[in-house]
Predict the structure.
Amino acid sequence: MEEQREALRKIIKTLAVKNEEIQSFIYSLKQMLLNVEANSAKVQEDLEAEFQSLFSLLEELKEGMLMKIKQDRASRTYELQNQLAACTRALESSEELLETANQTLQAMDSEDFPQAAKQIKDGVTMAPAFRLSLKAKVSDNMSHLMVDFAQERQMLQALKFLPVPSAPVIDLAESLVADNCVTLVWRMPDEDSKIDHYVLEYRRTNFEGPPRLKEDQPWMVIEGIRQTEYTLTGLKFDMKYMNFRVKACNKAVAGEFSEPVTLETPGDTLIDGGEHYWEVRYEPDSKAFGVGVAYRSLGRFEQLGKTAASWCLHVNNWLQVSFTAKHANKVKVLDAPVPDCLGVHCDFHQGLLSFYNARTKQVLHTFKTRFTQPLLPAFTVWCGSFQVTTGLQVPSAVRCLQKRGSATSSSNTSLT
């Protein structure tokens, strides 16, 4: 009977989850229907505005070119009319002079003939007809104002809707969640040289699986991303998951969002200004206590920009009278009094591993070395307890180990 009840409870839970998913999808479909109406009205309005702008531009160009023809016609008409008037006046003057010359020639026997002939000669010399150019000042050819819009017509016939970039594909295998940072990597399904930038949106959530349409947390937007990956830093992992989506943009329009993904963001409670605190306790089986600091490879640690990091160890150093630092088989006994708060600082590029008193900031010892791989700190405890303060994400393995350690009395447990 109890098994049947448990099975029925599972069925009810499964149906409830499925019903919630269907309801969310129905809401999404209804919202999409509203968006289709609103978006289609908007693009239709934009299309009409673009064509109206094109019509206005063509009308403006037409008016300008017609004005050019009218001005050229008026200028040519003015020049030709002036030349015609000058020729008409010259012809009238020449005809009068010709008539006078004929009359004088008929009166050759007159005493006034020599004087009259001289006057006619002087008149011919000064006549406008002999100073007038018989070449038209302008041409009647208007071919320089002809047009051929065949190429432009082809361009207009080729008008079409803008090419929209494809939706990117988020590469989960290359993406990384670590150190209160998320590095998201994506790619385009097809090569597109016209992509100008990408837009990344993310939001926090407590629900696993596809992003829900109704969420309390808003989408946060990051624009102007030029590469196909982006690292979000300084995040607060105070919720279980984060949703991510990306879209590509050319210089004119944005494409569809990628299929959204949900990444788990394991973290601890943030206190005291945003630092992570965690503590591991063990029942001592001897009066000795030690803290070991090891470094192991962490794939993309350096790529995340962590070139230097520090940790503060709060040590329960009862009956502890000395402290020894060790690195690469090199041992250094720290002469200074054993601090109750030991600082460990690693500078990857400079090759420095330093131990110091976190209370007084006194450097106890520094190892100089050359790190050949990115690093990850790990701690080992022998009998006792210690507390680590760090701004990095608390590894989930530590929390699991804390639970196991509380039920055992192991004298040598490694937190890695």
Summary: The radius of gyration is 47 Å. The CA atoms of residues 31 and 37 lie 10 Å apart. The chain has a mean pLDDT of 75.
